[in-house]
Amino acid sequence: xxxxxxxxxxTMIADNFNYSVSIDCVIFGYDTTDLKVLLIKRGEEPYLNxxxxxxxxxxxxxxxxxxxxxxLKELTGLxxxxxxxxxxxxxxxxxxLGRVFTVAYYSLLKISDYELNPSSFAVEAKWHSVxxxxxxxxxxNKIFATCKEKLVESIKRKPIGFELLPKEFTLTELxxxxxxxLQEPFDKRNxxxxxxxxKLLIDTGKLQKSVSHRPAKxxxxxxxxxxxxxxxxxxxxx
Length: 238
Description:
Layout: H1 2-16, E1 20-30, E2 35-42, E3 51-52, E4 55-57, H2 64-76, E5 84-89, E6 100-110, E7 122-129, H3 140-157, H4 171-182, H5 188-197, E8 201-207, E9 217-221, H6 223-232
Parallel strand pairs: 1-6
Antiparallel strand pairs: 1-2, 1-4, 2-3, 2-7, 5-6, 8-9
């Protein structure tokens, strides 16, 4: 009886160590007109020639954070991207070759600031509109949807714009940013009322130049107020 229990115990341990852990990166990008997500075309099985989120197994001797940096760099060429951990996915059967848990990370960046250079098993890396991503490999549609919800929640709680807008911008550009990222239109008057109530902007006293329409005022962010709101948060509901 005792030997049987010992055998069962070690068998259970052996089975539990037959799992793998991977990283999947959901990189959202803003290009002034659309919200996009970065996908790679897989050059190997499983899911050969399918579009997928940039992701790969964690090496045994690296931390999760180190793995995120390596995987993103190898598959897309991107580096120095701030990534935030979202959730671990571990449904049985999510990977056709065995039991694989994956840790999902996400980020939001300005597309024009980065250049793609895919390598390893990624034969292509391309920005896709979040409205038209199609069917992805593995359970990546589920991971994408979860991270998109996380992005929307974050935008409604923290200010955005420093990394996505030019140093000086119009209120129309700021509204377009929020409408694009949140995927919903806002009433112009209500949006500006909300923004003004946050006391986040400074009027530069300048106007747009070289535009075919009536030039609009240019604003910039109040650095101190921006940092305060980013730390303390707020409720962006219009």
